[in-house]
Write a structure and sequence with these properties.
The protein has about 150 residues and is α+β, with helices and mostly antiparallel strands. It folds into two domains: about 1-65, no CATH class; about 70-145, no CATH class. The chain has four helices and six strands; from the N terminus they run ααααββββββ. The chain has helices at about 1-15, 25-45, 45-65, 70-80; strands spanning about 90, 100-105, 105-110, 115-125, 130-140, 145. Strands 1, 2, 3, 4, 5 and 6 form a six-stranded antiparallel β-sheet that branches.
Length: about 150
C-alpha cells in the first residue's frame, strides 16, 4: 500500500509540473519513478523502494540535466560500438560540456533476458566533474535504453 501511495504521489507530481520542468527535473522525476519501481521489485519493501527512488532521482537528474540530443546520440554510439573498457569522449559543440564513457562488456540480464551493458560516465558541466555509473539494455527494437 505504501508503494502504491508513493507511485501515485510521484505520478501526480510529474503530471502537474511537466509544463514548467527543465530537462534535469524531468530526468529526476522519471528516474525517481523508475528507481522506485525497480527498488520495489528487487526488495519488496518500503526501504528498497525509497532507496531505488533516491538512486533513480540522482541518475535521472545527472543524465537529464545536461544531455541533449547530440549527447544522447554520442552515448548511444558508445554503447553500440564502444570497445569494452576503452573510453570514448566528446565535447558538445553547443554548450561545451565534456563527456567520457567507458562501456563494459555486454551481458544478458538474467531477470529480463535482454542484452545490457554497464558504463561509467564522467561529465564536466560548468567546470564541475560529475561521475555516475549506468546500465543500458536493448529494447524489443534493438535500441539501447538507459535503465534507472
Amino acid at each position: 500500500m505504501k508503494y502504491l501511495s508513493l507511485l501515485i504521489t510521484l505520478s501526480m507530481f510529474a503530471l502537474t509540473s511537466c509544463a514548467n520542468m527543465n530537462k534535469a527535473q524531468t530526468g529526476a522525476v522519471g528516474g525517481a519513478a523508475g528507481g522506485a519501481l525497480i527498488g520495489q521489485a528487487i526488495g519488496h519493501n518500503t526501504e528498497a523502494t525509497l532507496i531505488g527512488a533516491a538512486v533513480g532521482t540522482m541518475l535521472g537528474y545527472i543524465v537529464g540535466n545536461e544531455m541533449d540530443k547530440y549527447d544522447r546520440k554520442q552515448l548511444n554510439h558508445a554503447y553500440e560500438r564502444g570497445v569494452s573498457n576503452q573510453t570514448s569522449s566528446w565535447v558538445n559543440p553547443d554548450n561545451g560540456n565534456q563527456y567520457s564513457v567507458t562501456p563494459q562488456p555486454a551481458y544478458t540480464s538474467p531477470s529480463t533476458n535482454r542484452v545490457c551493458r554497464k558504463a561509467e560516465i564522467n561529465a564536466v558541466i560548468d567546470g564541475k566533474l560529475e561521475k555516475t555509473y549506468t546500465t543500458a539494455c536493448r529494447d524489443a527494437n534493438g535500441q539501447w535504453q538507459l535503465q534507472n
